[in-house]
Predict the 3D structure of the following.
Amino acid sequence: MSINLEIKLRRANKIYYEGETISGVIHISSSTEAKHDGITLSMEGQVNLTISNKNVGIFEAMYNSVKPITLLNQYTDLAPSGKLPSGSTEIPFELPLICAKEPKVLYETYHGVFVNVTYILKAEIKRSFLAKSVTKAQQFFIQYHPGLPSEKKTETNFSISPESLQKTAKERISIPRFLITGVLDSTESCVTKPFTGSLTIHHTEVPIKSIEMQLVRVETCGCAEGYARDATEIQNIQIADGNVCPKVQIPIYMTFPRLFTCPTLITKNFKIEFEVNLVVVFGDDYLVTENFQIVLNRTA
């Protein structure tokens, strides 16, 4: 005898907004008639915070007090004890997506290293201790309602040269002479739209080997005892390979990966922020990095 359980959502992309109702069916297929002790469905939404190993010794009290933040916690009985007929059975369900307690907001789904925001449906067919209960989990995604684009101009011009680098005089002598200028079209970006700009190599004494754009997430989590801040790279995109012709404008174009980015989020217990690094690798493997803080949002 075998029982298969599946959660089918009515929305194919599994993306929902706060205040909506998530609906679907529980699909059960059984090879024979089977007794059960009830069929239930639970919906959970949590922010899971993790302190990196390097900070455990420093923030021992914080390490023990960083607990998951509950955003959703609903439970419903779909069917009382009884028998499952042989063949297929479908049980419809509907659950409202409302955060009933603090922080009273459903954060966007996000998969990070030290911060994770997840939403899961769990169905269970309860059976006696002689027969194993059957469970199935299905993740769904929460997004913010798109807001209006910012009218504030956030275009950023930059210039990178040995003089602009924050180095000591002794180190500055060993840096090859070069000049790179460019512009970032906006440091406030929608997560569904590309991050764009351009740069120009005016001159360089040492041939350039590669130019790359790095997207970095900065996750901060903690409590009253202290905070731990960790930066990890999400993606690295090469925008130029080999020595670049001088005075030629090189476009910057980078899309934000789904789930690993979300609108910038700052709360009292954790923060999710983002940065972009422009990395120039010279022929002698000397690296020059320029850092830009960016703000992500979700706009129409």
